[in-house]
Amino acid sequence: MQSQPHRPLALAGLFLLVAFSVLFLVFGWTPLSLSFSFGSDTEDSSAHRRMPRIESPDSALESAREFREHLRAKGTAEQKKAAGHVLTVISMIDTRDGNVHIGTDLDDDPTLLKQDGALDSSPGMTLAWAYADWKETRTDATVNVYNAADQTLASGVSLGESSPDDES
């Protein structure tokens, strides 16, 4: 009887195919939802940054409440709509990097926003500019906004900068 040396290899391959199929089904993964980063493209890396750990939860919740109240009282219609999505605000004082980090319940995908060219008009960017306009005390700090999955929606808006809407 002849030996079949390729049979264990074929079975292993079939096992891996079934295992990955089950993982994709269980976790709802699609090939488009997986992101792989090659090289050091800084534009892509911003979407993969995560919101820093909240060291002072009470302060982050209080800062978020104050920001929401400010937007509801003095914000534009677009800012008032976005205000309801603000969950936490880690202020410059509470972070190690000296920047502001805003956590939201938005489900926007930063990669899709960049592809559609809608990043500048997104709720995340609206919140970043609104915070920068409200707290224009330091020009060396930036405002970063994160979606519900802790992915960066807006980044690099400097405190003290005027919003693009103010320039018209």
Structural account:
There is one protein chain. The protein is of the alpha+beta class and 168 residues long. The chain has one domain. It is 43% helix and 13% strand. The chain is built from six helices and four strands. It has helices at 7-27, 42-48, 57-74, 77-83, 110-116, 123-134, and strands at 86-90, 100-104, 142-146, 152-158. It has a four-stranded mixed β-sheet with strand order 1-2-3-4. Strand 3 (142-146) and strand 4 form a beta hairpin. Helix 4 (77-83) crosses helix 6 (123-134). The radius of gyration is 22 Å and the shape is elongated. The chain starts with 6 loop residues before the first helix and ends in a 10-residue tail after the last strand. The model is unreliable at 32-47 (pLDDT under 50).
Descriptive terms for the model:
168 residues, alpha+beta
Q: What's the topology here?
A:
Blueprint: H1 7-27, H2 42-48, H3 57-74, H4 77-83, E1 86-90, E2 100-104, H5 110-116, H6 123-134, E3 142-146, E4 152-158
In short:
The protein is an alpha+beta fold and 168 residues long. Helix content is 43%, strand content 13%. The chain has helices spanning 7-27, 42-48, 57-74, 77-83, 110-116, 123-134, and strands at residues 86-90, 100-104, 142-146, 152-158.
